[in-house]
Specification:
The chain is mainly α. The protein has one domain (2-58). 83% of the residues lie in helices and 0% in strands.
Length: 60
């Protein structure tokens, strides 16, 4: 599972790695921000889904 998840977004890795700008720090920060944002969104969606399932199965 881990291998597939790591291989699923090759475009993001290519863009981050191939972005050979004179300011590598900027691209690095941008990539880190994008990764953090994606992980945050996935976490929020996962928590929302878990809460929705738990409340739906719990009753009401």
């Amino acid at each position: 599972m881990d291998a597939s998840s790591w291989e699923s977004p090759p475009s993001a890795h290519v863009r981050c790695g191939a972005a050979e700008l004179p300011r590598a720090d900027v691209s690095r920060v941008v990539c880190a921000f994008l990764v953090s944002f994606v992980l945050f969104v996935v976490f929020v969606v996962f928590v929302f889904f878990v809460f929705r399932v738990s409340f739906g199965a719990g009753g009401a």
